[in-house]
Hints:
The structure holds two protein chains of two kinds. Chain A has ten helices and no strands. Chain A has helices at 2-13, 21-30, 35-46, 49-65, 75-96, 118-127, 130-134, 139-150, 155-162, 166-193. In chain A, helix 9 (155-162) crosses helix 10 (166-193). Chain A starts with a helix and ends with a helix. Chain B is an alpha+beta fold. Chain B is built from eight helices and seven strands, in the order αααααααβββββββα. Chain B has helices at residues 3-14, 20-32, 34-53, 61-74, 85-101, 111-133, 145-152, 240-250, and strands spanning 172-180, 183-192, 195-203, 210-211, 215-217, 220-227, 230-236. In chain B, strands 1, 2, 3, 4, 5, 6 and 7 form a seven-stranded antiparallel sheet that branches. The A-B interface holds A 15-16, 18-19, 21, 24, 27-28, 32, 35-36, 38-40, 43-44, 49, 52-53, 56-57, 60-61, 64-65, 129-131, 134, 145-146, 148-150, 154-155, 170, 173-174, 177, 180-181, 184 and B 8, 11-12, 15, 17, 42-43, 46-47, 49-51, 53-60, 63-64, 66-68, 70-71, 73-76, 78, 86, 90, 218-219.
Amino acid sequence: MRHMISGRKRETANPGPPLSPEARKRFDAEVLPHIDAAYNLARHLMRDAQDAEDAVQESCLRAIRHFAGFRGGDGRAWLLAIVRNACFTELRRRRAAGERVMFDEEQHTEADPTPGPEADLDRVLAAGSLDAALAQLPVEFREALVLRELEDMSYKEIAQIAGVPVGTVMSRLARARERLSRILGAAREEGARDGLP
Amino acid sequence: MDCHEVRDRLGAFLDEELDPVTSHAVAEHVRSCGACAAELERQRRLRDGLRRGLEYHQAPAALRARVVRDLNAATPRSGWLGLGAGWAWQWVGAAAAFVLVAGGAWLAGSQSTIAESNAIVGDVVTGHVRSLMAGHLTDVASTDQHTVKPWFAGKLDFSPPVTDFAAEGYPLIGGRLDYLHGRSVAALVYERHKHVINVFVWPTTENGEAMTRSVTRQGFHVIHGRKESMAYWIVSDLNAEELEQFARLLAPARG
């Protein structure tokens, strides 16, 4: 936490070169409208509203500071790349600090584990929502699914944001969907056994 | 192409990410293979379910306000608190917009009227942001118009009309007293998809009904309306279309 706070102060104290009125106008038109997309991605990656807000504000400050480096084009993809990097950096830091954060890279690829413990299934059932099921996937899978299904991005766009080859995006999506099906299927069976609809 | 190869490509097939030749081969196979067709259908249902069922989290209004504040801090002389020469200049554009959209009937007056309307737009946006940042959105938090309206009695020298538009998708969430443009005003607070809408209301001596289209300031949309001797200033980060829809509920313009 201390790291995040001090980093934050530095960012605020040194906003970098000011935005010219023209740059501000471009920022307002090309980047700012994507703050919902930024928050939605951060929310699904961090799985916490406050963490997501922190990540987005931090990312927007960074976007403002480095706006000169934005050569036009897709403002949404540019902002989302900054947001996902902020989220992954924070999640990696937490894992290094001993918190339990699930990254795909730690798992064995040949056999995905069967769905989590029953407590997790209960959460899916209780919430009655896909969000709870999604939240059980490794962060790279959540990223790929959110960008694909909620932002309707192509594999190429997702690859650019995630910084991986297109083939990796394809396999992450396939495995994410398979895993999600299994979680939802298990939740349904669980529900049937308990006499729920 | 055999079943195994097809299964590996069904996701990309659905996502329309296969090259035309492979895509055609998959489509051909699925046409003649019941098992693969069923698997494709299962995946399609999952995808449709995700698109429908996954929550799209919208940025909270307070976060948006903080980002805009950071932006203003990085933009010299254009922040709403920086009343420098550059700032005043930027309002000329908004003034022109207001005169144009008002169809000449409203605000087609002197320079001083235009300057005044610009000042109000600035006050309205500042008032909106202040309400979000200070954690002081409502003095009376109630979705009941019959609770909110009487609350203003005795606190203001006029009685603002208060209507709940929950049925139309714009629920009233409360009211508060605010101080805007040199006077005490009623602030009615509505919500739309978690976006906060502030409506500032005070009496006007101008007659008739009018409503402007929205203008955008610092990422917020502002609409002015007038009805039954009340001036309405509507402000939100909600998209312009929905805000205009809301404004029509509040102060319908004739003709």
